[in-house]
Fold:
Amino acid sequence: MADLLILMGLIALGYFAGSATERRHYRSISKREEAFLHLPAVTFRSHGSLADASESRLVTGCAVISVDYFKRILAGLRALVGGRVKAYESLLDRARREAVLRMKEADPTADIIVNTRIETSSISKGGSNRQSVSTIEALAYGTAIHVKKKGT
Amino acid sequence: MILTNIETVPGKTIAEHFGLVQGSTIRAKHVGRDIMAGLKNIVGGELKGYTELMKESRKEATGRMIDEARQLGANAIVNVRYATSSVAQGAAELFAYGTAVRVE
Structure:
């Protein structure tokens, strides 16, 4: 009985704290994405601005994000019947967007970031034999280009 | 040392190629961070300790790659790529590689 109570407590804690964290994170992401609209990150290798570039450097950004207990249980149940695992979709989405934002923050004065690559790797939980993907790392990297200002 | 992940250094021309340079590091998580991460696994959200760890490790791998390029006499590395692979439970390898060149 006590075990069941603890489990229920963990699920409830995961649900309330987890969804509050997620909402807060999404608010912060959309606010910062708006602030960085002037610095596009593109996946092209070459771009018109390359010819008159004055400076270029590699920029990276990474984020490690974990899913909450409630969603982990939900995903475990989903694995029984198969189908779309909505619980993890928002996790990956948040991690990637956060990584791209951090990459942009690494060089906020650049004019464009070309050849942006995003990589995802799952970090296994140490000390547990659970095989589920619950903690993921997203890495974004690209080349930040500073264009020569006209008239200088 | 100029690093880019495209084939050229914009605004400069490549004078000489030195070939592949690489740097890697294998890191394990430490216990304190792991306990914190265990708590965070319940409520979800960002694991700042791990983010820091990955950032530091990637910096070290990049540093080793830069050292190798410097020994060859290069002043830039183009087409840099990153890769991550888990070697054992709780340990990850962070790997950076690219082509060392001399630009003018």
